[in-house]
Amino acid sequence: MQDTVVKGKEMKRIITVAVSLACLCLSGYGQEAASFPYPTVPDTLRTVEGRAEYVVTHYWDKFNFGDTVLIRRPEITEQGFANFLDLLPRVDSALAVRGVKLFVGKAFAGNVPGTVRKYFAEKTDHYLYDIQSPMCNDALYALFVSSLQHCPTFDIAERERYAFRLRNVVKNQPGTVATDFAYTDRKGQRSTLLTTPGEYTVVYFNDPDCENCHRITEQLRRDSILGGNAKGRITVLAIYPGIDTDEWRRHSQPFPTWWIDAYSPEGEIETHQLYFLRANPTIYLLDKDKRVILKDPSPEKLLKAISSL
User: Fold this and answer.
1) Span 235-262, average pLDDT
2) In terms of Cα–Cα distance, which of 270, 246, 251, 255 is closest to 209?
3) Mind listing the pLDDT tens digit for each residue in 117-149?
4) How far apart are CA 206 and CA 263, in angstroms?
5) Minimal CA–CA distance to 245: which of 180, 186, 194, 178?
6) What angle do CA 239, 308, 139 make, to 5 degrees?
7) Are 210 and 247 in contact (CB under 8 A)?
8) What band does 11 get if pLDDT is binned at 50, 70 and 90?
9) Rounded-to-integer distance, Cα 20 and Cα 1, Å
10) Is 292 left (phi over 0), alpha (psi -120 to 50) or beta?
11) Which of the four pLDDT bands, split at 50, 70 and 90, describes residue 27?
């Protein structure tokens, strides 16, 4: 039965990739002036895997990185780049790594105008790093910054910025066991994340002085599961990660009574940078083994995932 499920998932992935490839390869740059120059897959390549490899490795062959006019044509350049980003998570991870390296080698070469290099650097940040982007993806962003941090066309400060971001975005990726930390609750009881019971755990990093936290807390409280009494199956661990514990003590949040309202002793989570908290609040969904299911999802994505569990 398990083999059947795996094969079914693999078949679904292959079909998805095949559809994506078919859509991307319908047009050529010479056929339509206002379209990205997608590669044309040779008819001799019959397998989905073979066609996928060709498209990913030849995706940018016909694009003129030296033409600065193209970065002012979003229907060509930005659309093509967005489709490239959408394609990468659908293919084998090794192929995605190869595709990213090929792209970085072309887009950030020394003979490419600085305005073009800056354009693609900003678009990469916008689509993959900005948490407001629906395509935000730390794992995929890490592939890009792994190459960008060594790119000789960037100055030392830019390379160090990418290296810093890489160290952060790789923390607590989906599929990994979440980094353990200690916490103290309102009753003064001390515990740790990995010893916290629950079939699923929502880790809700928040700040009592954060208006956005108050808004999202209310949104989560209104949910029939997180606002109800699901203690035992779902544990909500609301954590203040900062060092100003007096502020946490002064401001009791209107959390449901079964949520764990706690703080990080001496602000260990923040001072030791155990988690990459780029916004308030930051949310994680963990399974019973404290393995990350979702990293920094929107409240809507979190609630949708919980409703399907």
Assistant:
1) 92
2) 251
3) 999 999 999 999 998 899 999 999 999 999 999
4) 10
5) 186
6) 60
7) no
8) very low
9) 29
10) beta
11) very low
- Average pLDDT (81-95) is 95
| Ramachandran class of 222: left when φ > 0, alpha when ψ lies in -120 to 50, beta otherwise | alpha
Instruction: Give percent helix, percent strand, percent coil of the chain, each to the nearest 5.
Output: 45, 10, 40
- Considering only CA atoms, which of 60, 69, 9 is closest in space to residue 34? 69
- At 270, is the pLDDT very low, low, confident or very high (cuts 50, 70, 90)? very high
Gap between the Cα atoms of 129 and 204, Å rounded: 20
CA 122/CA 126 separation, integer angstroms? 6
What distance separates the 2 farthest-apart alpha carbons in the chain?
70
Fill in the amino acid letter for 306.
Answer: I
Neighbours of 242 (CB within 10 A): 20
Global pTM reads 0.81
Total length of the chain? 309
Q: How far apart are CA 217 and CA 229, in angstroms?
A: 16
How far CA 140 is from CA of 47, 127, 253, 295, in Å, comes to: 25, 10, 35, 13
Structure tokens at 113: 């105008």
Distances in Å between the Cα of 23 and the Cα atoms of 27, 57, 64, 228 are: 8, 17, 21, 45
Average pLDDT over residues 57-82: 97
Residues paired with 260 in a beta bridge: 237
